[in-house]
Amino acid sequence: MEMTTLPTLSSLGFSPFFEQQLDDSIDERRIARVAAEHRGACEVWSVTGVWPARIAGRFHRHNSHAPGVGDWVILRDAPASDHPAIVERLFERRTLFTRGAAGRDARTQVVAANVDLVFAVTGLDADYNVRRLERYLARVYASGADPAVILNKSDLCDDTRAATIEVESHCRNVPIVVTSALSGEGIAALRALIQEGMTVAFVGSSGTGKSSLINALLGDDLLTTATVRASDGRGRHTTTHRQLIVLPDGGVVLDTPGMRELQLLDDDGLTEVFDDIAELSEQCRFRDCRHAGEPGCAVLAAAGDDVLMAERLDHYHKLEREAEANELRHNVRLRRKADRIWGQLSDEVALLRKWKGGKP
Ligand code: GDP
Ligand code: ZN
Fold first, then answer.
1. Cβ atoms within 10 A of the Cβ of 264, count?
2. Residue of the nearest CA to atom 10 in ligand 1?
3. What integer pLDDT is reported at residue 153 of this predicted model?
4. Backbone torsions φ then ψ of 268, nearest 5 degrees
5. pTM for the full model?
6. How would you list the strands of the sheet with 199-203, edge to edge?
7. Ligand 1, from 212, 256, 261: best to mutate by most atoms within 8 Å of Cβ?
């Protein structure tokens, strides 16, 4: 956190929703937000600055009850440089993105907690795809966050109006911003959607311009200046960026690989989009019915009488397979990426400590 002045809790996103979970008065310095997490170690932000922290052993590591990036936590003691901070308690989350199958708790992991607004980014070039946007929105709704759509690279599109109208008709009541990170078009409108104390995230395919947009929001504080050049151990220098970024005009960006490349649909998202199928499946004989020929399947019975329903069921099965394949690929790739980034982050923390004369 390259802050010349120390932050207030509210500038980091601490809102009345969290405040009202505090019963007694508590030393404000014990309240912190997880800014990076990896295998039980994390970096937390508090009103006293950035601290490395350890997660108390009683949290199960790899499930959704363990603290993840974006979580608000209470530390055992006010952080000090002579002993590591320990994450003691977790605030109830306002919103939550997880990875892994719903219901199978042991496999569910936190992708991001307490994101208020998610921008689904699509490029107005070959990347443009309304169906994919719709599926991003389904995931965002399932998390409890609000969605918005960014149509980026307007400089590469002759008819931004047609695209806007099409997106409007598919994504009702969702703010749409047309931007060009290159020319600066729409950046002010984007900034206007991000209020002080709000946590936002960007999702979308790689190459749609998420980094460029974050940089545009950072203005003179380019993402590269919010980073410390750290050696990756092989003598090469790599530039990493923070997973939580405080914007100069207020607001916090949560930017992790897991969030950026949000897997498109998990069970939650599918249920949201196919609520008719979800409703029918409550009448299936088997609780875990996959509607693929099981006896007593209410969904198949309905699809037998209804062409539209049959088509939807087909689509549902296709997306389900896609989601599963996605999840497998995704988990392997993310784990590698997280390992790499964490290695760099620890170096960053070490560098920061050195810089500030041992005070993190
Ligand atoms: P990310 O993978 O989503 O973070 O995408 P990047 O921000 O790294 O951008 C991918 C590429 O698209 C880079 O070469 C950017 O310079 C380019 N790019 C990003 N935004 C725009 C835009 O608005 N217009 C144009 N023409 N190129 C852009
Ligand atoms: Zn069924």
1. 21
2. 207
3. 96
4. -60, -50
5. 0.73
6. 176-178, 146-152, 117-123, 199-203, 252-254, 244-246
7. 212
